[in-house]
Amino acid sequence: MTTRQKISIAALIIFILFIYFSINNIYGGEATAITTQAITFSGGSRNVSYVTVDLNDTSIKIQPYVANNQIGTTDSLQNIANQGKTDGAEIIAAINGTFFSAYDNNPLPYGTIQKEGEVVHIGNTGSTIGFTEKNEVKIEQLYISISGTINDKDTWYAWNINHPFDTKDAVTIFTPEFGRETYTHSYTSIVVSSDKVSGIVKGKANIPSDGYVIVTGVPTIISKFKIGDTVKYTMGFSQLSYRDKNAYGGTALTEQWRDVTSAVGAGPTLLKNGVITADGLTEGFFEDKILTNRGQRSFIGVTKDNKLMMGVVPNVTIKELAEICKGLGLYQAMNLDGGASSGLIYKDQTIHAPGRLLSNAIVVTTKPVPPNTVSVRLDGEFIETQPNPVTINGRTMLPFRTIFTALKAEVDWNEAEWSAIGIKGSTTIKLPIGEAYAYVNNRRIALDVASVIIEGRSFVPVRFVAESLGARVEWDEENSIVDIWSN
């Protein structure tokens, strides 16, 4: 073999390895990663795209969101995921959630949705995955019941939350998550505001922002309520049991579910304590597309060491999906909605685009971590400011108006150039926001850190501004204080 041939073979091997690692680790990090990996199971092999999230990272938060913040509507997976961008949180990943009615122009969810501690929809079929504030994961075949009181004595019950029923004997609660008003119906609406009955009307009613509406056609229920009554309700959690295609509550699970703050129901369960289950019949599924057929599937689960995985697999049965989840090292796992609903996002990349708009999604974010704070003194007096000073890349930053004003400089803002400007005597400083440079009397100077916007305020580097205006700056490391001396 010639030297040229050896070089060509070596180059080919390097190229193959590059492709392999590109496929098997598209993105990565200490806490999260996106992977596409071929997994072998009894029916062959499939390429599985999945996100791994280390739930031991306390900055991680998992929350379901419904389209447009309103049950019964649809939106793109990306738009639903973007609802998680609250208080500066970063979107890590998102996947489609529970089943919903996708073909009748009334896209109501089928499964349970629990958000910020509040159950906003009940689906007593299948399994439910729940997350606590400490990122503990629980998968249960969950049955949720609703029981209420009137004036702490009379009792009432409800079937569901935010799910319309076209039947007289239904009793349903509608909260602001359903929208501003109930659906159009011919039954009775009992309006509850701040735990008090504020109205009893025939047909559709407005939903108060501080309460809910009970819709029913059951005379014995309706007759219990009077204007001014104090009304409350609670949830009961128990083990789901199916008999003759009807759901019942079994063993109490209230204690097990007490700490859960967010949850999504779908199913069936794929793995329980590392053992394949995947038994749709026992969870209330009777359709072949769940029980036997192959199709595109989405899954979510957790490893024994608390690593969350969620991903998409093409053309598999539920049993085969369970095998694949076991092959990925999952200890608990559950099936999500699939088919055209399957979708997966990792950070700013769409890994698998859904074939339709969605009703809901599970969104993983990082909680905003408060920046490191220090104190700033000018001639021995602390500079008071809100927001507090922050440290970025080892540099202390203050709102530009605060530091310029403290140093008796005139302050200006160039909207067209998105720049903070300070003028003192013959010195003019201009700091373009988002850029790692500034201008002092039109002379461009490189900076160690760019000026940024935090909590709506423009922050600039303290040392650079102070020294450019003729002040002396010292760092008190023991007490984390920046001392500025103006003379």
Could you explain the architecture of this structure?
The chain is mainly beta and 487 residues long. The protein folds into three domains: 27-145 and 235-366, no CATH class; 153-229, no CATH class; 375-485, Copper amine oxidase-like, N-terminal domain (Copper Amine Oxidase, Chain A, domain 1), CATH 3.30.457. It has eight helices and 40 strands. The strands form eight sheets. The protein has an eight-stranded antiparallel β-sheet with strand order 1-2-3-23-22-24-20-21. Strands 4-27-5-25-26 form a five-stranded antiparallel β-sheet. Strands 7-6-19-8-9 form a five-stranded antiparallel β-sheet, with no helix packed on it. A hairpin with a 2-residue loop joins strand 37 and strand 38. The longest helix is centred in the N-terminal third of the chain and has 22 residues, at 3-24. The protein is globular, with a radius of gyration of 29 Å. The model is unreliable at 10-30 (pLDDT under 50).
